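Fold this sequence, please.
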Amino acid sequence: MLVVRLVAVPAALVGGWFLAKSQGLELKPVGGILLLLAAIAVNQFAILLIGWRMGVGLRLFGIELSMRESMRIAIQSQFYFFFVPVSASNEVARYLKIKAVRPETSMHELVVALILDRVMGLTACVLIAIAALPVVGLRPIGGVALAPGWLLAIVAIVAIGAMLLAWKLGWLAKLGEAVRATRGRRALLVPAALLVLLMQAATITATWLAAKWLGLGIDWPALAFGLSVGTLGQVVPLTFAGAGPAEVAGAAAFLALGSSAAEAGALAALVYLTRLMAALEGGAWELLQGVRSLRARPEATAS
């Protein structure tokens, strides 16, 4: 299955490039190399923030990891999030790896901490989408000019639907447990929330820089709105080769903002590439750690 995905990912990207070209969209660099390097650097900063954010979130529950351990586990988990067809594989990988490093950790507290990390990420997307509404609302969406108030109402309806789904899945009860479990350490909620917002903003900025490098005409608020709305699609847990409802929702949001089908697909592909970069780094770190573990075995030393 992994080999199939490693073949499917580049094949899908090449197919998307030919589709965009057939639609009259020329995807070729129009910016300088410095713009591309800036996009890669900002995205790398966002990837590192994944580990920092996870480490602070774990400390909320008294689970202490070194910065290196937090970075390693968080980035390695991106490999499983991308290449295993269930987005919850991210949390499963983190759970197993943290338990391997800290076997004394309470299963209940660790599960609640990982759920809280996911909820905070989705909440950050909602907040960024709402913050972008005053700018996005000045243009027609889906060919219809809507006042920001109506857009806010639509977002509120979607948020209520997400809350009902979270209640049905038992996530709200887990969130209440999480808040109660952080008693005495709740001051860490502020830096944890700021890191989540900063990571999302860095991902948006990296995608925006890459879009400018390719000559795609989209401004930062519109990209922030579309990317954040798309990320909310991760509530539906099924993916294939890292792609799933999030890409569909993101492309739909860009279409509604007035992008052509080719441009919307290209923007969704850029967001997909930011996650692919994290997954490849996680896979490389996983492979390196596996090789070191094999070499450290007594039979390997004896041979």
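The mean pLDDT is 77. The chain has one domain: 30-292.
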